Amino acid sequence: MTANEALDRGRLAFRRRAWADAYRELAAADRHSPLAVDDLELLATAAHLLGHDDASEAIWERAHRETAGRGDHERAARCAFWLAFGLLNRGQPARTAGWLAKGRRQLGARGGDCAERGYLAVPEAVQHVEAGDCPRAIAETQTAVELGERCGDPDLVALARCVQGRARLRQGETAVGMALLDEVMVTVLADEVSPALAGNLYCTVIDGCQEVFDLLRAREWTVALTQWCESQPDLVPYRGQCLVHRAEIMLLRGAWAEAADAARSAVEHLSRPPHPAAGAALYVVAELHRLRGESAAAEAAYREANERGRPPQPGLARLRLAQGRREAARTAIQRALGEPDDPAVRPALLAAAVEILLATGDPAGAARAAAELSELAARLDMPLLRAMAAGCEGATSQADARPSDALIALRRAGQLWHGLDAPYEAARVRVRLALACRAAGDADTARLEFDAAGAAFARLGAAPDLAELAELSGRATGAGGLTVREIEVLRLVAAGKSNRGIAADLFLSERTVARHVSNILAKLGLPSRSAATAYAYERGLV
């Protein structure tokens, strides 16, 4: 095969987004005869999208040398931007700043419209957003948008609008910010931006949605990102972040098996090389273990998430509460609330604080946390925050012996969680509703709410909640006559755990576990552990 044939095949593979083929063919052509700058840029992009970051950087440096050497300063500045873009995403701010400075120097004081000036201004605008100087960031990105429009450069327009949208969100202009991000995503979906930029825009927009708790938009764009990644099997960057977003959404939607698969795949993708988003994936893994009552596994996952940069709260404090270590839970959540934190995590900390402070006899503290959460919900006006705030308002009203107020708030919370397709949270609200109805003397409605919550917890495999529900309702909430504890044991048997492993997870003795297993087999009329495993899967208990 001649160099020209390899070059043609490489260009065709690039257009098809077959990145491995494009990289192989273009690299082969380059070995025969050095590529022109246009084709070098294709080769550098293919290397980046395959995760070959060092190779991509070396190729962009080569393209920069060639363009600068022949006096094509604008093209050299464009290469400097792409080098800075890659380094910024790899967490190397000093080298990023160096390449941006080099690009600006190469453009010098020459006047006239030049898209490269806009490209080099965008990273500075990002820094202004992070520093809290949003008006300056908005002004700089507006100039970049106008440059991109005059120069016919859709990549620059989309990139600048995306940063501008995030700046508007930080200023509290949620509607304006989301409209800008929606416009960016329409451009991406129409395939009007380069593949090298599309993945970054997807992740940035989804992060923006999560920052303002716009769950419905985050879901929609995560589905689109998933489809984009799946259409390019060779793609390496962005796939891990996509899986993290998917895991978080599946966790809330009650698709816990899918959430676990996505989170573990995300950890695998984000560990080669290590990426900070792996901590978020491990936090999802920890939450799933906690919700299923697998305390030892949850603790290990929270520890690893913390090591990867994702603080373990509020999940670890909730785990301590479930373990009966109430003072440890209270200390942990109060410390977390008192420290500077990610604004995207603050509502979850507040909701956990309400639960923990009520459990530890501090209704006044719980009321303060609920009030702060209500203020956030009113300011951002997103269904997710309104659902959290209404649930906390109902809980504090119950603690204050105001059952009528509690019922109103809890009904509102239940409707919101149902609208968000969040079955676990909806079931938790049902438990509180049942308690409020019982306090108001409505035993029939209380029983119905208890039963609905128990059915939801059983479908999800939320063993600790089933156990708590049995205590609150005064009835076993099992299947086939099993008690809640027996369901917990059955789930772990079905997961392949030995009696010793089950004992460690549930903090029981091996003798007690053996008795539970014997009772399960007798009640269900089953001959073996394998038959019990099949029963658990058939009934959706696993």
Give a nutshell description of this structure.
This protein is mainly α and 542 residues long. The protein has helices at residues 3-15, 19-32, 37-49, 53-69, 73-89, 93-107, 115-131, 134-151, 154-170, 174-189, 195-211, 215-230, 239-253, 256-269, 277-292, 295-307, 315-322, 326-338, 346-359, 363-380, 383-399, 403-419, 423-439, 443-460, 463-473, 484-494, 499-506, 510-524, 529-538.
Radius of gyration: 27 Å
CATH architecture of one domain: Orthogonal Bundle
Tally of DSSP helical segments? 29
Helical coverage, percent range: over 70%
Give the overall pLDDT as a whole number. Answer: 90
**CATH class division of one domain:** Mainly Alpha
Which structural class is indicated by helix and strand composition? mainly alpha
